[in-house]
Amino acid sequence: MQNKHTRDQPKDERTKSILSDMKNHTNEKSDNNARQKVTDLLPNEVIHRVELVVLRRYPRRLVNSANYTGSLAAACGRDETGLVGIVLWGEQVNRVKAGDVIRIENGWCRSRDGEIIVSTGRNGSLMILDR
């Protein structure tokens, strides 16, 4: 049992370090470009910029609806303040992996079953900051 803890420790420390860096990150840009925290996100509001550690990416599924046709996957992520659901679209599904640190800009935030969900939507962007 102790070997498993030792094996997982570097990843846990990496995650703590990333979250610590995110917490200590200061931004001198305007409020519109300042990094938002999960606890600051409100349903039906635009996300200006949020940075998350992806904890898990769920299996891809294909969607064919009036609004979107293509790959879609759910994921979950966190910052130093809490957990959030993530919707990945199209090529994001193959690019984003568990453990990645991502930035979503100009996306959307929704509430589903009382939980906050974020996504780039049609006009936003997703960047992988660290693997």
Kindly describe this structure.
The protein has 131 residues and is α+β, with helices and mostly antiparallel strands. It has a single domain, classed as Beta Barrel (OB fold (Dihydrolipoamide Acetyltransferase, E2P)). Helices cover 21% and strands 45% of the residues. It has a five-stranded mixed beta barrel with strand order 1-3-4-6-5. Strand 3 and strand 4 form a beta hairpin. The protein is globular. It starts with a helix and ends with a strand.
Give short descriptive properties of this protein.
single chain; 131 residues; 7 strands
- CATH topology label: OB fold (Dihydrolipoamide Acetyltransferase, E2P)
Strand content: over 45%
CATH class membership: Mainly Beta
Q: What CATH architecture do you see?
A: Beta Barrel
Low-confidence stretches: 1-7, 25-30
Report the total helices. Answer: 2
Short description:
The chain is of the alpha+beta class and 131 residues long. The protein has a single domain (2-130), classed as Nucleic acid-binding proteins (OB fold (Dihydrolipoamide Acetyltransferase, E2P)).
Lay out the secondary structure.
Elements: H1 2-24, E1 45-57, E2 61-64, E3 69-79, E4 82-89, H2 92-95, E5 101-112, E6 115-119, E7 125-130
Parallel strand pairs: 4-6
Antiparallel strand pairs: 1-3, 1-5, 2-3, 3-4, 5-6, 5-7
